[in-house]
UniProtKB/TrEMBL annotation:
The protein's name in its UniProt record: VOC family protein
Residue ranges of coiled coil: none
Domain VOC, first and last residues per copy: 2-116
Pfam family, one: Glyoxalase
InterPro entries xrefs: Glyas_Bleomycin-R_OHBP_Dase (IPR029068), Glyas_Fos-R_dOase_dom (IPR004360), VOC_core (IPR037523)
Protein's organism: Haloechinothrix salitolerans
Length: 118
């Protein structure tokens, strides 16, 4: 397993203002509107920022790690559980097409471990 991308999550208290800032000031493109605002670099589509609306996830992850495929998500989940790490959002196939779970790293940072479903 290896991470294919790591995506930071920004606070989503002002989705419209954030869209305007990231597009008009930083030159990113809107790649997704729902369920989150997803922005990408026009020259490097793996350079992304995700802005979830307030209250979408509780707890809210700080960033996402795309591990490539759903089987790798399952393997990461099994490894996290085996090590006694705190899984704070269960292994789930989301209706928008990702398999994911949230885990706290040893320092307490919440990470969304995910892969797109085929």
């Amino acid at each position: 397993m290896s991470a294919s991308r790591i995506v930071p999550y920004a606070d989503g208290t002002d989705i419209d203002g954030s869209r305007e800032f990231y597009v008009e000031v930083l030159g990113l493109q809107v790649a997704m509107h729902e369920p989150v605002l997803g922005l990408t670099s026009p020259t490097n589509p793996t350079a992304q920022v995700i802005i979830p609306p307030p209250g979408m996830d509780n707890p809210q992850p700080r960033f996402g790690v795309d591990v490539g495929d759903p089987a790798a998500v399952d393997a990461a989940h099994a490894a996290a559980v085996e090590r006694g790490l705190s899984v704070v959002y269960p292994l789930t196939d989301e209706p928008w097409g990702v398999r994911r779970f949230f885990v706290k790293d040893p320092s307490g940072t919440i990470i969304n471990v995910l892969a797109h479903l085929e």
